[in-house]
C-alpha cells in the first residue's frame, strides 16, 4: 500500500476538494487515472472523479462547469477559436502512434508508391503518420496514397487482403498488428515531440484558484514519476482502468516509458507544430501565439515545489 504520509504535501494540509477531471479513454492519457488510483490526487487534498470523455464534449463541459479540468489536448481547436481555456502543463510530449506495414515491406522508404490507411483524414493517425513519413525523407503528399480505411480491425483486414500496404495505429493496437504478422516500421515517440496529453484549465480557475491547479500539476508529475519507476504497479492500473489483458498492458507500458515526461514541461517546437496543424485543419487565418493558448506560470511554481529546476 502506498504510504501517503511520506509525501511532501500531505492531504491533512487541505480540506478535500471535490473535482471532476475529464480524460480520453486510452492508455496514452494514463496520468490522472493513475494519480487517482494510486493516491496522488488524494495526497494533494482532492476527492477527484475521473470522467472518460472526448475532446468535443469536454469543451462544452468545461465551459458549463460540469468539468473542472480536462487531461487531453483534443480541445485545442476550441481554445484557438476563443474558448476561455488554457493548457497549464504537458504530461505526454511524445505521440503514441505506430507505423505498421505488411510483412514484405521492411522500411519506410519502401512505402513509396504504396497505399496507407488511416481511420479518417485530419485525425491524429493521419497527421502523425504524415510527419513520420516525412521524417524519413519521403513526401507524404506525393510519394504515396493515403486512404480513409475505418477502424483498426477494418484496416488490418484490408492489409491482410493486400488492399493496404501500411497503416498508422495508436497503442495498444500495434500489439494486435504484430500478432497478425505485420511489421513495426517506426514509432512516433522515438522520432519527434508532438504533445498528446496535458492539463487544460478554465481561465477563471487560473485567476481564482491557482493553488488548486498547482496541486493538480504536482499530482500529475508524481503520477508520471511513478509510471517510470513502477512497472508492475502501472501495469496493474492499466489492466484495471482500460480492461486490458496483461500482455497488452505490458506492451502499452513500454510506450508510456518513452512517451511521458517527469516534469510537466511543454516542448515548444512540438507544440508549435501542433498549433499549426490545428490551425490548418480549422481553416483559421488568425495568428495564434503560445500565450493565447497556454499559461505555464503555475507549472513553474509546481516544479519549484518538487525541486525541479
List strands and helices in order, with pairings.
Elements: E1 17-23, H1 31-38, H2 40-43, E2 46-52, H3 55-64, E3 69-70, H4 76-80, E4 85-92, E5 97-101, E6 115-118, H5 124-135, E7 145-148, H6 152-160, E8 166-170, H7 173-179, E9 183-187, E10 197-202, H8 203-208, H9 210-229, H10 231-242, H11 246-259, H12 268-281, H13 290-293, H14 297-305
Parallel strand pairs: 1-2, 1-3, 6-7, 6-8
Antiparallel strand pairs: 4-10, 5-8, 5-9
Helix pairs in contact: 1-9, 1-10, 9-14, 10-11
Descriptive overview:
Helix 1 packs across helix 9 (210-229), helix 9 packs across helix 14 and helix 10 crosses helix 11. It is built from 14 helices and 10 strands. The chain folds into 2 domains: 4-94 and 194-305, 3-Layer(aba) Sandwich (D-Maltodextrin-Binding Protein, domain 2), CATH 3.40.190.10; 97-190, Periplasmic binding protein-like II (D-Maltodextrin-Binding Protein, domain 2, 3-Layer(aba) Sandwich), CATH 3.40.190.10. It has 309 residues and is of the alpha/beta class. The model is unreliable at 1-14 (pLDDT under 50). Strands 7-6-8-5-9 form a 5-stranded mixed sheet, with helices on both faces. The protein starts with 16 loop residues before the first strand and ends with a helix. It is globular, with a radius of gyration of 20 Å. It has helices at residues 31-38, 40-43, 55-64, 76-80, 124-135, 152-160, 173-179, 203-208, 210-229, 231-242, 246-259, 268-281, 290-293, 297-305; strands at residues 17-23, 46-52, 69-70, 85-92, 97-101, 115-118, 145-148, 166-170, 183-187, 197-202.
Amino acid at each position: 500500500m502506498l504510504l501517503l504520509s511520506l509525501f511532501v504535501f500531505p492531504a491533512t494540509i487541505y480540506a478535500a476538494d471535490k473535482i471532476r477531471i475529464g480524460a480520453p479513454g486510452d492508455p496514452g492519457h494514463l496520468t490522472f487515472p493513475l494519480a487517482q488510483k494510486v493516491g496522488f490526487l488524494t495526497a494533494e487534498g482532492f476527492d477527484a472523479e475521473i470522467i472518460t470523455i472526448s475532446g468535443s464534449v469536454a469543451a462544452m463541459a468545461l465551459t458549463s462547469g460540469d468539468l473542472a479540468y480536462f487531461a487531453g489536448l483534443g480541445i485545442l481547436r476550441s481554445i484557438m477559436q476563443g474558448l476561455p481555456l488554457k493548457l497549464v502543463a504537458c504530461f505526454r510530449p511524445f505521440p503514441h502512434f505506430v507505423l505498421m506495414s505488411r510483412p514484405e515491406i521492411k522500411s519506410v522508404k519502401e512505402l513509396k508508391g504504396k497505399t496507407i490507411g488511416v481511420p479518417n483524414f485530419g485525425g491524429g493517425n493521419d497527421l502523425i503518420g504524415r510527419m513520420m513519413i516525412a521524417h524519413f525523407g519521403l513526401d507524404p503528399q506525393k510519394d504515396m496514397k493515403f486512404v480513409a480505411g475505418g477502424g483498426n480491425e477494418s484496416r488490418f483486414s484490408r492489409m491482410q487482403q493486400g488492399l493496404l500496404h501500411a497503416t498508422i495505429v495508436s497503442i495498444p493496437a500495434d500489439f494486435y498488428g504484430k500478432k497478425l504478422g505485420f511489421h513495426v516500421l517506426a514509432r512516433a515517440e522515438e522520432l519527434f515531440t508532438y504533445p498528446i496529453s496535458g492539463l487544460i484549465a478554465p481561465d477563471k480557475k487560473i485567476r481564482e484558484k491557482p493553488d488548486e491547479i498547482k496541486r493538480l500539476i504536482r499530482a500529475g508529475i508524481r503520477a508520471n514519476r511513478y509510471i517510470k519507476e513502477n512497472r508492475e504497479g502501472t501495469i496493474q492500473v492499466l489492466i484495471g482502468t482500460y480492461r486490458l489483458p496483461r500482455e497488452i498492458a505490458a506492451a502499452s507500458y513500454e510506450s508510456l516509458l518513452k512517451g511521458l515526461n517527469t516534469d510537466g514541461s511543454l516542448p515548444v517546437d512540438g507544440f508549435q507544430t501542433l498549433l499549426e496543424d490545428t490551425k490548418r485543419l480549422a481553416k483559421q487565418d488568425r495568428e495564434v501565439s503560445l500565450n493565447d493558448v497556454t499559461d505555464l506560470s503555475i507549472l513553474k511554481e509546481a516544479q519549484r515545489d518538487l525541486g525541479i529546476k
